[in-house]
Amino acid sequence: MIERLVVDTNVLVAAVCSARGASFIVLRGIVEGRIRPSVSVPLFVEYESTLLDPRVRRMHRLSRADVTALLDAIALRVHAVKLHFRWRPQLSDPGDEMVLETAVNAMAKTLLTFNERDFMPAAGKFGVEVVAPGAFVLRHRVRLDA
Prior knowledge:
It is built from ten helices and five strands. By secondary structure, it is mainly alpha-helical. It has a single domain (2-145), classed as Rossmann fold (3-Layer(aba) Sandwich), CATH 3.40.50.1010. The longest helix is centred in the N-terminal third of the chain and has 12 residues, at 41-52.
């Protein structure tokens, strides 16, 4: 099982956009229990609010029930992280701070995001490697294809 990683919301949005990309492979790995991401309450609330947004659901033809079922499946597989320390400000985008804080508090090795540049160099100060889903899937392909 792949653990000690944090998945940014943009990866989940990409996963519901297409069943052909690396983000979908990551999502499938989570739902099937091969990847166990670390998630804080604020980050999970962002997952929920973003995926339940009517514009996102309409764009990707998802019902509220579809999204709720997906979120329930994700919630069953995550490592819940309490945010004991706040490290703000570290990033240029205040909306990304909770993602980095989740990674730091989880002592995560990896942060999956499409916004790699937004997390650098701050993530490196905490020993967190920032990786795009495609690179992550290539690196862990054998374990993801189990």
